[in-house]
Amino acid sequence: MTKTLGGLMDDFGEFHAWLVHVQTSLWVLHAVSRSEVLGHLGDDPMPMAVLAEKAGMKTDMLRRVMNFLASQEVIEIGDDDCVRHTARSRAFQDRHEIVRWLNVNFPPGLKLQDAMKTGVASFESHYGEPLFDYLSERPAIAGEFGKLMSSITSAIEAFIFSHHAFRPFTRAVDIGGGHGRLMTRLLTEYPSATGVIFDLPGTAAQAEKTLAASPLKDRIEIVGGDFFKAAPKGGDLYLMKQILHDWGDEECVTILNNIRVAIADKGRLAVIDFLLPEKPAPHPGYALDINMLCLLTSGRERRLSEFEELFSAAGFSLDRVTENPHGQSVIEAVPA
């Protein structure tokens, strides 16, 4: 977004047009994702009427939606009324989970005011149970959520490995490492190291399947467990990507204490999370902070000074920061 909300509000016409555009975009992307209409397109252009028949849609209705996507440079429509894929529409096909997650995430967001009054995440009040309990009971939705997290990791990786150089290490431990995307990229960049992926037992089992065919599998150990109880010992680099932002200060200190017990004497801890400005200013982290307010009762984004307080409470001290003004930063701490 090139303008802040305040900047848009300086011109009510522009503000209204922006609201309508955002609303319409969400409607269209949701419809295209749920119907999987673009999945009927192949490498060759397809007549609109044929696409409508394959998708089980009315040709005129479909054309209006396709016209919107073409106007937004997502697809192409030729003079022959044929629809063509673009690199953007193909990329969207591969990342449907971004929009599908809105099916779950958006309705609780409309109850944000309730969370502001009660202190309970609007997701929990809407669905009657906390986010992670909800996901554990719905494997299909959990799978979409996992794909979304992997997509986010892909974007984070691009920044991390182009801007942040990890100090020499031999054994990395990814706390809450999911299906191992970050670890596999890390070990590709650092070929002499080994790694441990640590996550809940169910997630660890999925990681085993995901990495079974990986050329790095012999360098990776997968461990199931609970980071509120203990962390795998002996690593000299511990990573946490978007873990601490899920939890309140007390829970974060518990996690950090367990890592402090496990970490090698000269080890390093790398926390990958948004860094909010010390004073409010335009920054994408504030939008994610509101997402956390909706999703998790204790979840929140933090300022660097708040991370320093957490580190200190668990026996770490801040060492260095690679700040990303457009996304997640890398915050490194060492045993105090």
Short description:
The protein has 336 residues and is of the alpha/beta class.
What do you see in this structure?
The protein is an alpha/beta fold and 336 residues long. The protein is 51% helix and 15% strand. It has a seven-stranded mixed sheet, with helices on both faces. A three-stranded antiparallel sheet has the order 1-3-2. The chain has a two-stranded parallel ribbon with strand order 9-10. Strand 7 (237-241), helix 13 and strand 8 (268-273) form a beta-alpha-beta unit. The longest helix is centred in the middle third of the chain and has 25 residues, at 139-163.
Characterize the largest beta sheet: strand count, sense, and whether it forms a barrel.
Answer: 7 strands, mixed
N-C termini distance: 40 Å
Would you give the CATH topology of the largest domain? Rossmann fold
Whole-number total of structural domains: 2
Please give the number of β-strands: 12
Q: Supply the number of helical segments.
A: 15
Overall, the morphology is globular
Overall SS class: alpha/beta
pLDDT below 50 for ≥5 consecutive residues: which ranges?
Answer: none
